[in-house]
Amino acid sequence: MIYVCIPVHDEARTVGVLLWKIRKVMRELARDYEILVLDDASADETAATLARYRRVLPLSVIRSDQRLGYARSLERLLREATKRAAYPKRDVAITLQGDFTDDPAHLATLVKTIEGGADVVAGCVAHTVPGPRPVWWARRLAPWALGGVHRRAPVSDPTSGYRAYRAIVLKKVLREEGGAPLLTTEGWAANVELLGLIAPHARRIEEAPLEPRYDLRERPTRVRALPVLRELFRLRGRPWFTPTPVV
């Protein structure tokens, strides 16, 4: 089973089209799948849009009336996917954004790379890819903000949240944390933090070059370069991505 995990906040204008595109890709891929959406206290028509699509898609919606933010929403989705995974060595959780920046067309690449033996597949965006100015600056300065954490990372872009995880790896991380919150940072930094926690349990981590779609999103970017870099800077000095034996 493939669990497609999407945290959303006020994405009524794009989430329906995104879900339908996921359906198209997964039907062509011919794999069993379920879409898990966390509606993070949306104040627009997101809830109504999701309700309509629940009737025609394998879609489960988790609603939070209190704003969680990206990191807590992501963690809750991954915990839910892991709980549902009946075959954790085969089942996969894929995370992507709800604003259409992450193109569902790349789902096939992520799934097939996992099926080829990888435990984690990270979508990676080149620094030269054009985008909104705050995104461009944040991406450009992220390696500096992370320092050695970025240099040691097993992928060229540890900030990207478009990833596929084998469920058994997530299960090991959650067991190790013993019920404590996994993520202590927000935004892009949470993606780096998650990769740092997962890497010791993954026998093989691969990356897939992906190109984001800024032309399909129907709202301005919510990324602000300075807060993003401030969160990334908090991760400097973390002892991640050093060689350790896989248990």
> Radius of gyration from the CA trace?
17 Å
How much of the polypeptide forms β-strand, as a percent range?
A: 15-25%
**Helix proportion of residues, in percent?**
40-55%
Identify the CATH architecture: Alpha-Beta Complex
SS field, number of helical segments: 9
CATH topology: Spore Coat Polysaccharide Biosynthesis Protein SpsA, Chain A
Q: Order of helices and strands, N to C?
A: EHEHEHEHEHHEHHEH
How many structural domains are formed by the residues? 1
Placed side by side, the strands forming the largest sheet appear as 3-2-1-4-6-5-7
| Shape descriptor | globular
Poorly predicted sequence stretches spanning 5 or more consecutive residues: none
Taking the sheet with the most strands, its summary is: 7 strands, mixed
CATH class: Alpha Beta
Structural class: alpha/beta
Report mean pLDDT, rounded to a whole number: 91
Number of strands: 7
> For this structure, what is the CATH homologous superfamily?
Spore Coat Polysaccharide Biosynthesis Protein SpsA, Chain A
What is this structure's SSE topology?
Elements: E1 2-8, H1 12-29, E2 33-40, H2 46-54, E3 59-64, H3 70-84, E4 92-95, H4 107-115, E5 120-124, H5 133-146, H6 148-152, E6 163-166, H7 167-177, H8 188-198, E7 205-209, H9 225-233
Parallel strand pairs: 1-2, 1-4, 2-3, 5-7
Antiparallel strand pairs: 4-6, 5-6
Helix pairs in contact: 1-2, 3-7, 5-9
